[in-house]
Structures are given as structure tokens and as C-alpha cells.
């Protein structure tokens, strides 16, 4: 009898920026209680899954050298969890993954989480599991706090450790310039630095989220710019003091506001429109304060199946500093 090998499945998945990140106390499980607003941006990774006798992962694109290809790759955690969930042998899942990175590695833009979300969605299709979005999101949360948002995309309010999501209305498209630093920062270290900086004084930070939600609904980037806030920014800047210069340079170049993305070190600058973003990107890259600059828009959809063809993929706009 002839056995049919399923067609490879490719999923495109976005980066995120936290427009608001309010960090509460550390919980007994080591995680911090968050109130955050995520926005998915048009910097994307692509993950292709295919049936194979030899399991494994290959990683291509910028920063690929610093991404693990073994079991510590978050996309592989997704493979193992979904195999277990569907009664397969997690040690012999019979799949190969190919990851094409467009999201900066260890940049505070949830690149690893994005690949895990993409792997979940792709395998759900490859293995014909027909698991619904809600159940897939529960599995995603077991991999990491940011993984459910990578599945969902758009703009969303996150609570708990960031995994409990409610979609948020964001009118119009916002235009961003993304400044990548020369080296990444590890998330646990940045949370640890925030705890250290806070000492005994406890949480006090970016405040209430409601005004930002109103600005998103109004679609006015000037209003939104005034309300961007990230409690992890002081910790990221403390670990990487050069970020202060990057943040200043973006605003001097004409951005409405700049913010460290999540745990950093990537900085995200909100601009009035696309033309302004292109001008800010060019000026910022000339200022020599970062490794690379990109232009991005948000919100964009979460993980979605594109096709099995990789040809003719547009490259994201890039300006090298
Ligand atoms: C800071 C944020 C903001 O969105 O993103 P990144 O900047 O990493 O992209 C997230 O909270 C990162 O989420 P994620 O990267 O999925 O973290 P996880 O794998 O769940 O946790 C990694 C580690 O980060 C710390 N952590 C994470 C989430 C949270 N609410 N409190 C924490 O203290 C813990 O030390 C934990 O062990
Ligand atoms: N698929 C993946 N892509 C990128 N990094 C990954 C991946 N899987 C595991 N990692 C590890 O996770 C760390 C954090 O990477 P990433 O998710 O890109 O950043 P962040 O947590 O700052 O958003 C990296 O240092 C890398 O070693």
C-alpha cells in the first residue's frame, strides 16, 4: 500500500512589543504578576514543519548562530508537548523543523515564543489534530508566558504572568522603528535586576493601563506616545547603560517616543506615520547607537499558515548602522 507523506506546513509568526508593562510583586512560583498590553509587529519568523525519519531543527537568518538547535529550542518544546498531548512518542515525534529568523534573538520581542507558537499551529495541521484555539493557547502557556500572545497576535491586554489575554481595540495602524542592540539580554536577569533596584520599596511604576487603552481606541499616535511605559526599562538600562543614548537618539531623530521592548535590549520608537518612520530609521542608523534599524507596523495578526512555498518572500526593510 502507498503511504502519503503530508505536505510541509509553513507558519508565519510576528514579534511583539509591550506598549505598557506593569510588573507587580514576585509570586511564590518565581513569576511576577503583570498587567501588560502586547502589540504584534510586522517583523516575523517562519517555521516549516515536515514529516521526517530523522527528527531535528535547522535555523536560518539573522542571529541563527545563537539559537539552540537541540531540545532547549522553544519550538522543540512545542513539538514534545503536542506529541505528548496527541499520544505520540515525544522522543520520536518524526518531524523536522526549519526556522527562518526575522525577529531579533534575545531582544525582548518574543522570538523564541513566536517559534513555539508557530510550531504548535503547524503541527496541529500536519498531524490533523484539529485542536481549537483555546486549547492550543492552554498548551502554549505551558511553554512560556508570551507564547499565547504569539498565537493570538493583534493587540491584547495580558494579565497573570502575561498568559491570560483579552483582545484590545486598536484603531488604525501604528508605525514603529526598531533599534537592535549588539548583544541580547536574558529575560530572568532583567526581572532579577528590577527586583534588586526596587529593594524593599516594592512595586511602583508605570501606573494604570486604562488611559493607554483609550489612546489605542482613538488611533492617535501622539496620544499613545505619551502613555507608553515599561517597568522593565530601568532594569534593562541599568544592565545596558548604552540604551539611554539609543532612546535619546530616536527621539532626537523625530520619533514621538521611545521605549525598551519587554526585557530589552531592543528599543521601539513610535512615529507619526510611515514616512516619518523611514526618516527616523535612516537618521538613527547614522547615529551609530545600535547594530541595525528596522521599520515595522502594528498590529498584525498572530501565527498563521502561509503556504509550503518559501520562494519570493519579501525581505523586511533594513538599514544597517
Ligand atoms: C518580559 C516579557 C514581556 O512580555 O517578554 P520578553 O521581553 O522576554 O520577550 C515576558 O514577561 C517574558 O515572557 P517569557 O519570555 O515567555 O518568559 P517565561 O519563559 O515564561 O519565563 C522566563 C523567566 O522570566 C521571568 N518572568 C517571566 C514572566 C513573568 N510574568 N514574570 C517573570 O518573572 C521568570 O524569571 C521566568 O523564569
Ligand atoms: N526558537 C528560538 N528562537 C530564539 N531564541 C531561542 C529559541 N529557542 C530558544 N531560544 C533561547 O531563548 C533565549 C531568548 O530568546 P528570545 O525568545 O528571542 O528573546 P526574548 O525572551 O528576549 O524575547 C535566547 O537566548 C535563546 O538561547
TrEMBL record:
Binding annotation for ATP: 104-114
Superkingdom to which the source organism belongs: Bacteria
Matches recorded under SUPFAM superfamilies: GHMP Kinase, C-terminal domain, Ribosomal protein S5 domain 2-like
Protein keywords: ATP-binding, Isoprene biosynthesis, Kinase, Nucleotide-binding, Transferase
Pathway: Isoprenoid biosynthesis; isopentenyl diphosphate biosynthesis via DXP pathway; isopentenyl diphosphate from 1-deoxy-D-xylulose 5-phosphate: step 3/6
Annotated active site: 16, 146
An MF annotation (GO) of this entry: 4-(cytidine 5'-diphospho)-2-C-methyl-D-erythritol kinase activity
InterPro entries in the cross-refs: GHMP_kinase_C_dom, GHMP_kinase_C_sf, GHMP_kinase_N_dom, IspE, Ribosomal_Su5_D2-typ_SF, Ribsml_uS5_D2-typ_fold_subgr
Domain named GHMP kinase C-terminal: residues: 212-287
Example GO BP: terpenoid biosynthetic process
Span of domain GHMP kinase N-terminal: 73-154
Reactions that this protein is recorded to catalyse: 4-CDP-2-C-methyl-D-erythritol + ATP = 4-CDP-2-C-methyl-D-erythritol 2-phosphate + ADP + H(+)
EC number(s) from the headed UniProt entry: 2.7.1.148
Family: Belongs to the GHMP kinase family. IspE subfamily.
NCBIfam families, A to Z: ispE, PRK03188.1
Stored HAMAP family: IspE
Described function: Catalyzes the phosphorylation of the position 2 hydroxy group of 4-diphosphocytidyl-2C-methyl-D-erythritol.
Protein name: 4-diphosphocytidyl-2-C-methyl-D-erythritol kinase
Amino acid at each position: 500500500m502507498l503511504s502519503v507523506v503530508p505536505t510541509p506546513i509553513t507558519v508565519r509568526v510576528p514579534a511583539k512589543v509591550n506598549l505598557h508593562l506593569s510588573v507587580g510583586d514576585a509570586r511564590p512560583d518565581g513569576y511576577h504578576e503583570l498587567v501588560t498590553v502586547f502589540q504584534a509587529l510586522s517583523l516575523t519568523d517562519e517555521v516549516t514543519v515536515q514529516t521526517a525519519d530523522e527528527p531535528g531543527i535547522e535555523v536560518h537568518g539573522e542571529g541563527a548562530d545563537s539559537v539552540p538547535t537541540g531540545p532547549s529550542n522553544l519550538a522543540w518544546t512545542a513539538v514534545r508537548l503536542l506529541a505528548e498531548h496527541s499520544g505520540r512518542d515525544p522522543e520520536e515525534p518524526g518531524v523536522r523543523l526549519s526556522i527562518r529568523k526575522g525577529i531579533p534573538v534575545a531582544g525582548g520581542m518574543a522570538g523564541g515564543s513566536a517559534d513555539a507558537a508557530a510550531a504548535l499551529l503547524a503541527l496541529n495541521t500536519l498531524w490533523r489534530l484539529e485542536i481549537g484555539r483555546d486549547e492550543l493557547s492552554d498548551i502554549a502557556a505551558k511553554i512560556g508566558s508570551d507564547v499565547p500572545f504569539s498565537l493570538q497576535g493583534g493587540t491584547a491586554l495580558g494579565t497573570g504572568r502575561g498568559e491570560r489575554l483579552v483582545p484590545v481595540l486598536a484603531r488604525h495602524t501604528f508605525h514603529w522603528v526598531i533599534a537592535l542592540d549588539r548583544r541580547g539580554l536574558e529575560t530572568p536577569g532583567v526581572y532579577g535586576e528590577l527586583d534588586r533596584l526596587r529593594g524593599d520599596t516594592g512595586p511602583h511604576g508605570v501606573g494604570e493601563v486604562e488611559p493607554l487603552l483609550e489612546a489605542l481606541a482613538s488611533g492617535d499616535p501622539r496620544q499613545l506616545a505619551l502613555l507608553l511605559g515599561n517597568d522593565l526599562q530601568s532594569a534593562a538600562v541599568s544592565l545596558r547603560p548604552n540604551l539611554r543614548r539609543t532612546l535619546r537618539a530616536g527621539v532626537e531623530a523625530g520619533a514621538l517616543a521611545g521605549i525598551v521592548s519587554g526585557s530589552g535590549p531592543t528599543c521601539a520608537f513610535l512615529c507619526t506615520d510611515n514616512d516619518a518612520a523611514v526618516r527616523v530609521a535612516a537618521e538613527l542608523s547614522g547615529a551609530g547607537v545600535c547594530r541595525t534599524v528596522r521599520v515595522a507596523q502594528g498590529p498584525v495578526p498572530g501565527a498563521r499558515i502561509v503556504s509550503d512555498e518559501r520562494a519570493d518572500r519579501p525581505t523586511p526593510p533594513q538599514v544597517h548602522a
